[in-house]
Give the backbone structure.
Amino acid sequence: MIEPGHLKAEAALPPPEQFCRRIPHLQHLGMRYLPACVENHSAPVFILGFQDRLVGNTHLPALHGGAVASFMENSALLHLLMEQNGTSRLPKLIDFNIDYLRSAGPRDSFACCEVAKLGSRVVLVHIRCWQRHFDRPAALARAHYLWEPVSGNTELAEDIRP
Amino acid sequence: MSLIPSHERPDGDPLRPIQRFCEVVTYCATLGIYAYGVDGPKVCLALPYCEDILGDADRQWINTGAITTLIDSACGSAILHALPQYEAIATLDLRVDYLRPAPAGGEMRCWAWCHRITSNVAFAQSEVYVEGIDEPVATSSASFMRLKPQKREAG
């Protein structure tokens, strides 16, 4: 269970170097993360520190919906890579659905992911993004990824078939 | 109704509000998203390629998050383009199908259009193209809340 009140954003780490090299867009977003082992979280928590350049509506102000979606998509990707130790090629996004529940204000955003289904070829990931309260998400999303086993390694596909 | 790129249009044209949108929405300006053109009910926003949006360095594909940002912005613009006057809207939900990878290097263009407006909600669809590929790399469907409820119109 994630207790957002206990999240220590200042303890967050940049994504592992190998992922930053493979996914240059991560550095543009400025994403960081708290590993799963920290504070007994069951999954890594991803953090998008507030930056003025990510704002959409300057009057509210609120983060751009695209920045929130991008943060959530890339959280799902990192979650999958971390679970699989980055051994295979990057999972390929098939589709992405996002529901915006409330506007994301000018403060840090958090995201956590759950693999809802790990099939032989497709992975379904559920993603939650929140700010002050875990129970009051700014957005909920789900994404299907095509899971491409490393070339020649068809055993992986067999292993993860349900 | 032919497409005329923004730089060839005179002032006072329907593209101007879309250009203004791209300027005042900070994250659009951050990424370099600009108003490419208007064709009847359709609007087109473009995102020039830069390394910041590279999502897969091994295979040289653009990050899908950057595509989603372009789509969200273009669909919002299409709603504003369809409304009789400017009003505040907010994305309710967005679905994107990534039909094929978007190769790095080319400019991305998202054509979006509003196909239904009710007193509370507006719906938009879009197609995203990358320079050099004839088929769309992504399609989307989105709904938006009109933040100020409107009186129900006859019909």
Q: What stands out?
A: Residues 8-159 of chain A form a domain with the Thiol Ester Dehydrase; Chain A fold (CATH 3.10.129.10). Strands of chain A lie at 31-34, 45-48, 55-57, 62-63, 92-100, 109-118, 122-130, 139-146. Chain A touches chain B through 37 residues (CB under 8 Å).
